[in-house]
């Protein structure tokens, strides 16, 4: 299993060189607009005095950490502003390894490929636990997999690629399991603003010294290239994570942090609601057409990906290329996310042409 | 020995709370203006379409890598755009450890404190080699220190804190030593635009599979907070470094990269020359006043720091605080950089009040 990025580029490039029009449903890069205040914030920053162009505090601009802390109802000292969710997860997983309490990472299958990639880079072993057909965790299997060798349990809710949103009981039990086995629970909540079920529960609502929550503004504000995310650590774990952050990156980019701060301060709830509405419309249209194509699929409770399975057409790279050439639709092969969904193809709803794509699929498979 | 950053903040905070006016010569944050094109580039980027706000390639915007590669006369495939010089050095040092060719880092004393901090975080041992009084490397001592256990030799030219610029023969011998002992030479050239001696020689002019060169736009363009640096790896080492960069940070901040690209494309040599002229004036004024104060000091050949020693007044944190309170000048204690210069105090010339500070010192010590 390879990481997301190279495979992702491989599919994108194949689609670009295709001899026909292709609807790109490969990448999870938002195609909608960031908040207006974000662009204004960046303009304002561009005219700031030279002193504002120098290092922010290593753990992020004070006002930004305070805005985050207030929203997440934690003390600002527990917040580290990171280079997107990517660094936030790296810091959390590295912090778990540093505790000398084992070396095994328990991940789900299917999985966001960066997690096993990071685990291996950190010298950890990886154990992947298949989820239920509906994307929910198989808690019997999780209980069996989590042992005293477990250093960290990594979950993503709302989930990429399954679209599942884990209920409160799941998060509670994961925290209990982490505590019982002296492991850490890492809850990656990067899609927290994309919950369509109303069931999303942040792991931060369950007090524990054994869980770390990460998130990012990449998807929230449609700015994957700005690299502003954050991690919320327990007090007992945060100092060493701050040291690593400083030794690896010194600090994050201040223009990006200033723009995100401006967006946080001036963006009302209607921005987030409008984006969700637009995504709901895309989900409905895409799923209706999948019905017409006779495909199995999971309707996402959160995030913005749909996993679909077409009879006799497993989610291999070869079949993904065939779909690009013959149907004009590009998705990600399910085998990129582990073995549990290698029959499936992931379609990202980051295009206004989601319905058109689904119609092409319906026609191709009819 | 602690890292630069916390000690640095400690001194800054002490100076801020002093009961008098203090000239801040603690931090190496430029106080001069970035190129006009940089601000314009950021404004232009702020109005770009949403697609331009998404992930750049993991190793950096293609045009930016090409600009860097052309200036450094290397193939763009060898360039990774990083989160400032900090991540560039981290990637280089981590790459050295991954080769399983030892575990010892050979550093200079005095040293930029992030190097030993990174080495320790990576699980390496640290061996520090005192430099000559004039800041040049003691090559006999270096030859003795570099063994088959050496994984990486880290040097910084022009040097912080000594101001030394290493001649070509030094760089050539360091490359030879690295090759002979299957180690890597890491040359951190972050001050490459601040050579007043005319003797600066980039390690890139010496072809070898055993040297990595890092640099950054933090000082070059007076934007330490933008976090845009780069590393140039040998072909044989670059792929694994790219993977680590991706797994730790995914990619760098695109607003920062876009602004730096605009500055590179539109900034003529007079910008760099003007900054150097202004620094030369500060160096002369400061050193003249140190003469009047009867201090030992090293006149920098490059970078923008002056190490000074006042008779019977060693560079301890306590004495640095005394200078803040009684002379109104804040510097960095020499003990922050190792033991070889613990009698000295480092003054950063990042203030228009350098001459005034020197006059205060002259008066205090007269």
Automatic annotation (TrEMBL), chains A, B:
Q: Which PROSITE patterns match?
A: AA_TRANSFER_CLASS_1 (PS00105)
* Top enzyme category: transferase
Read off the InterPro entries from this record.
Aminotransferase_I/II_large, AspAT/PAT-like, NHTrfase_class1_PyrdxlP-BS, PyrdxlP-dep_Trfase, PyrdxlP-dep_Trfase_major, PyrdxlP-dep_Trfase_small
Query: Which terms are listed as keywords in the entry?
Result: Aminotransferase, Pyridoxal phosphate, Transferase
A GO molecular function assigned to this protein is: transaminase activity
Q: Which domain of life is it from?
A: Archaea
Q: List, alphabetically, the Gene3D superfamilies matched.
A: Aspartate Aminotransferase, domain 1, Type I PLP-dependent aspartate aminotransferase-like (Major domain)
Q: Which residues form the Aminotransferase class I/classII large domain?
A: 21-353
* Family matches, as Pfam families: Aminotran_1_2
Q: What is its EC number?
A: 2.6.1.-
Please verify whether the record's keywords include Transferase: yes
- Record has Transferase as a keyword: yes
Q: Which GO terms describe its biological process?
A: amino acid metabolic process
Q: Which prosthetic group or cofactor does it need?
A: pyridoxal 5'-phosphate
Similarity comment: Belongs to the class-I pyridoxal-phosphate-dependent aminotransferase family.
Q: How does it assemble?
A: Homodimer.
Name of protein:
Aminotransferase
* UniProt organism field: Salinigranum rubrum
């Amino acid at each position: 299993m390879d990481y997301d990025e190279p495979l992702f580029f491989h599919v994108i490039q194949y689609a670009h060189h295709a001899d026909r029009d292709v609807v790109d449903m490969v990448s999870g890069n938002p195609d909608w607009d960031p908040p207006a205040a974000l662009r204004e914030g960046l303009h304002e920053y561009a005219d700031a005095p030279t002193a504002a162009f120098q290092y922010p505090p290593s753990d992020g601009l004070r006002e930004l950490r305070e805005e985050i802390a207030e929203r997440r109802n934690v003390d600002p000292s527990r917040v580290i502003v990171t280079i997107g969710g990517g660094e936030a997860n790296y810091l959390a997983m590295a912090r778990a390894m540093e505790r000398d309490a084992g070396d095994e990472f328990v991940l789900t299958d299917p999985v966001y490929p960066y997690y096993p990639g990071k685990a291996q880079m950190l010298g950890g072993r990886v154990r992947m636990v298949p989820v239920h057909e509906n994307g929910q965790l198989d808690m019997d299997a999780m209980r069996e997999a989590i042992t005293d060798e477990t250093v960290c349990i990594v979950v993503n809710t709302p989930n990429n690629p399954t679209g599942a949103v884990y209920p409160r009981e799941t998060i509670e039990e994961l925290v209990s399991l982490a505590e019982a086995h002296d492991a850490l629970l890492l809850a990656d909540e990067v899609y927290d603003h994309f919950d369509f079920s109303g069931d999303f529960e942040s792991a931060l609502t369950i007090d524990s010294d054994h869980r770390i929550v990460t998130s990012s503004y990449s998807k929230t504000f449609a700015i994957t290239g700005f690299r502003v995310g954050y991690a919320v650590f327990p007090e007992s774990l945060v100092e060493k994570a701050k040291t690593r952050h400083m030794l690896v990156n010194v600090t994050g980019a201040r223009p990006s942090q200033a723009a995100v701060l401006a967006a946080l301060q001036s963006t009302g709830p209607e921005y987030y609601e409008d984006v969700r509405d637009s995504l709901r419309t895309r989900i409905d249209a895409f799923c209706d057409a999948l019905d017409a194509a006779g495909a199995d699929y999971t309707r996402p409770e959160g995030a913005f990906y749909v996993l679909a399975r077409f009879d006799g057409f497993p989610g291999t790279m070869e079949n993904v290329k065939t779909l690009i050439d013959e149907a004009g639709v590009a998705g990600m092969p399910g085998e990129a996310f582990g073995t549990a969904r290698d029959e499936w193809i992931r379609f990202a709803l980051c295009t206004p042409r989601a319905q058109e794509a689904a119609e092409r699929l319906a026609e191709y498979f009819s």
